[in-house]
Amino acid sequence: MTDDDGQLEARLEAQDVFEPSDAFVSQANVSDPDVYERFDAEWPHCWEEAADLLTWESPYDQVLDDSDPPFFEWFTGGELNASANCLDRHLDERGDEAAIEWVGEPVDEANRTYTYEELHREVNEFAAALREQGVEADDVVTMYMPMIPELPVAMLACARIGAPHSVVFAGFSAEALATRMNAADSEYLITCDGYYRRGDPLDHLAKANEGLADVEHDTTTVVVDRLGPNGDDFGHDLGAAQHDYGDLVGAHAGATVEPVTRDAEDMLFLMYTSGTTGQPKGVKHTTGGYLSWVSWTSQAVLDVKPEDTYFCAADIGWITGHSYIVYGPLALGTTTMMYEGTPDYPDRDRLWEIVEAYDATQLYTAPTAIRAFMKWGTEYPDRHDLSSLRLLGTVGEPINPRAWTWYYTHIGDDSCPVVDTWWQTETGGMMITTLPGVKKMKPGSAGPPLPGVDVELVDAAGEPIEPGQAGYLTVQKPWPGMLRTLYRNDERYIDEYWAEYSDVDSDDPDDWVYFPEDGAKIDEDGYITVLGRVDDVINVSGHRLGTMEIESAIVGVEGVAEAAVVGGNHDIKGEAVYAYVITEDGYEGDETLREAIVAGVEDAIGPIARPEQVVFSPDLPKTRSGKIMRRLLENIADGEEIGNTSTLRNPEIVADIQAQVTE
Ligand code: WTA
Predict the structure, then answer these.
(1) How far apart are the CA of 515 and the centre of ligand 1, in A?
(2) 200: buried, middle or exposed (CB in 10 Å: 19+, 13-18, 0-12)?
(3) 544: Cβ below 6 Å to ligand 1?
(4) Distance (Å, rounded) from C-alpha 66 to C-alpha 63?
(5) Which helix (H) or strand (E) holds 356?
(6) 325-340: pLDDT as tens digits
(7) Which residue, 216, 239, 302, 348, shows the most beta carbons closer than 10 Å to its own?
């Protein structure tokens, strides 16, 4: 227990609604309460307001083309380039201002500032280099990179030449990289020699090379030298198909590359994400709709202004970093921060040190981080002047009122609105959250849908539910930032997101309903509390993982006959991976097998998916028809009472498993 617990408890008890301060509202980008009604009345033309934030080479003819649902198209006929929108158009007024402030993990290393001018220059040079390597418009370029500035440079260089990028989180395994490169037929990889984690240089290229060995076609690789001499010990020697990033950029010093004209509906990037089945889904985002969406939400929700120093402490390897470290902030011409390391290295006040040193104006992070800050105690933020902060945000998982109130009190000093933003890889950007300059906040509730976003909570039959009840989230109308399809798999796109609540034979767009696979509650004011996934996806520290992917990794380990993976509650991570495993005849559920299972999961996915507990059992609780009772396994993981087990084929197994988990 920390010192402030008593006060926090008192506050939780006393206050469940918070108003944004007058000081915030008076300067907010959006403060007109009529925005909700206006957007409803004007829909879909309200989204011209988002498109107007961009610079178009040729104007669009139609805001929404809904003639072929669910393949909705936005701003059709319009032409633009994302890199020109994020760079070129800011040069005149903001060329000397910082576009990116990068902080490396080692404290004694010099941080790097890229002005818009400098970022523009390097993006042009690298775009020229990529072209020389053969990259053409519509070639998918994979990036397997940690939080180093060359990652956004590479993304924008690809956008400049019309090549969609597919960024694979650096913490993912070699196998995960290979799966994604194969799925996208990607012939180009940009990676780096290594990076720092808690003071140690980590050999990233070895992992990339291991992945490349499983890629089914020839690839060209570009390697950024992140570590300098600290990477010498790894003994890397770039092969003939591998090029040094610095050499390539150097060879094109001063080059300029005209931004390629892209249709609004041309693909900007692919992002693979976890779903119900084992195969990751390639979510396709487009140039016009996506960029409009992230720009509009960045200014309306995060209140981003050009003069801000905006800090999103996510990783660019996930959608949050794409939308709200790179594209949204840069399209608006602000300064976006990037931090390479973890918030507790070398000490637990690293993030607060950065906020203070750079006078950060917004902080956008995940509830898992906030829960960790809370556990570490207030002495760390208290050591720093955080008064530059104007707004706080959270994303990725539900935030409980306690963590929300702690964040509001101790980081925001009671003066910063907190936006709890619900969205997904597939939605491109925020969908449900308060507009901080307009709406009151209720801790534990994301808030109402954004203006122009038509969210409805329904029951299993698709009928609207009453306030106070729990149901399923649906989105009843399309929005510009939505995914357009799953890469090369239109059928799966319909199955995964639309089939549940749509009339799939209808040509009427009103008959099509998007299902995000989340459960939620709604209150009398229309405020939505998102409860979490209702499919086989779990959320570990804000990272989205498919239980099927983890299960197939475990079943691949010698000695394992069957496995069931569920998410159990975890104080810091939100959810943790619990693996229940039946061994094959002749194998013991011992420490050796446990280690092999953990290693198997790390190899297939990465350390983020590592099981918190592996429970061996001769059988798993199953229904009479042989279906594993996952809900019951979740209850066991959470140490909850187990109700009636009479519908099980093998009720006797439950106590046995319970005994192991509570051990
Ligand atoms: C969950 C991350 C509650 C949700 C941007 C969703 C949330 C999944 C919130 C998407 C929130 C995201 N409150 N739950 N504010 N934000 N989620 O694709 O279950 O990595 O479906 O996108 O995270 O995860 P993804």
Answers:
(1) 13
(2) exposed
(3) yes
(4) 10
(5) helix 350-358
(6) 999 999 999 999 999 9
(7) 302
